[in-house]
Amino acid sequence: MNERVEDWEPQVSIVVPMFNEGERIVGTINSLANQDYAPDKLEIIVVDDQSTDDSYRWATEAAAKHPNVRVIQNPVNMGKRRGINRAVRQAESEIIVSVDSDVVVEDDAVRKLVACFVEDDIAAVGGRVNVLNKNENWLTRMQTIKYYFGYEYLKNVERAHRRVMCLSGCLTAYRRHVLVELEPVLEDRNVMGIPIKYGEDRFLTRHIIKAGYKTVLTLDAVSHTIAPPTLKGYFSQQIRWRRSNLVDYMGGLSHVWKLPPLVSLHYYSLFALLLVYPAVVFDSLVRGSFWNMAMIHLAMLAGFGTMYHIQTLALPKEDKVHPLNFLWMGIVMPVTYVALTPLAIFTLDSGSWETRGHKANRNDKLPDDVALDDLTPDESLPDEALPGAELPSPNP
């Protein structure tokens, strides 16, 4: 998307939902406080979802250094989306920017997002996500190339029609009135009567489109996230994303056909791949043709790696990785599809908040005496969270 409204500078509230992020939240807050945007038109709200570590202390210490940053703490563990909704209720800005708590945002990102609201029916604008720890090991290097193709190619059809079906919570801007309009739908999300907290970004994006609005993606607004450096962390992330994909693809069957034909075809094709790929691999094992299929698979990945190499020739060495690292997908992709897709199907009612939350159950809801409407900034913002307050050390 190339259209811009560079002279529009509305009030913006950046909301950062946080749970057990530790010291990393300081880097996130500092990157947001240093945005190339008028400070009097920018506020940053960090929402601590009852972290059990020292995240709250780190956040309040960072907030004390920036007059437009404040930290609020949920009275109970609400989950990411409810925490964001609570901050949205307190904010008065026209634009709400959601940023994950482990993300570092480039200093022109907010301005680039805001400039893309060129039409009244554009309700959300997402930014690009790069891998911050790209050279940590083979796994993060593989994910670096995977992220690159995800943004450069996989979303092109949706971008062309302004119907991007999933905007990352790492960096996305919304019109506030749309979030308020959709809040009842977001609050009531469940599978088989069990509240779920995974995949909220995808769910929100799809419902924005279902409501008749447009969603766009700009590659000019850039954020950097920490990719899981261990197989345990990677597979934990992937199973959460796989559940999200399955739930949302099924939810979209009732209305995605109303979208532009190419967008619908793209949506259904990805859903089919998710379901069919495990069966194809299993069939190849039974028929004894697995290694033939594996060689074709590796050849395709080598081709993608070559494309990556050519397209990143002009980038500095520190901004790219060796293309051969993508060959690891030849092993990782079949495993994730064959093992994780069936597992995700049988655990759709898992309700964990990212990788660190508690498992939900049918009674996982706000206590009767806690209502979002009744919560005010004063009730949840201790004196130590106020900018400029004297704070305890994060390392007592």
From TrEMBL:
Transmembrane regions: 265-282, 294-314, 326-348
Primary localization: membrane
Ranges of Basic and acidic residues composition bias in the record: 357-368
GO molecular function, one term: hyaluronan synthase activity
Keywords, in A-Z order: Cell membrane, Glycosyltransferase, Membrane, Transferase, Transmembrane, Transmembrane helix
Pfam families in the cross-refs: Glyco_tranf_2_3
Keyword Membrane carried by entry: yes
Region described as Disordered: spans on this chain: 357-396
Gene Ontology CC terms, in alphabetical order: plasma membrane
Gene Ontology biological process terms in this record: extracellular matrix assembly; hyaluronan biosynthetic process
Compositional bias segments (type: Acidic residues): 370-382
SUPFAM superfamilies (UniProt xref): Nucleotide-diphospho-sugar transferases (SSF53448)
Name of protein: Glycosyl transferase family 2
Organism annotation: Bradymonas sediminis
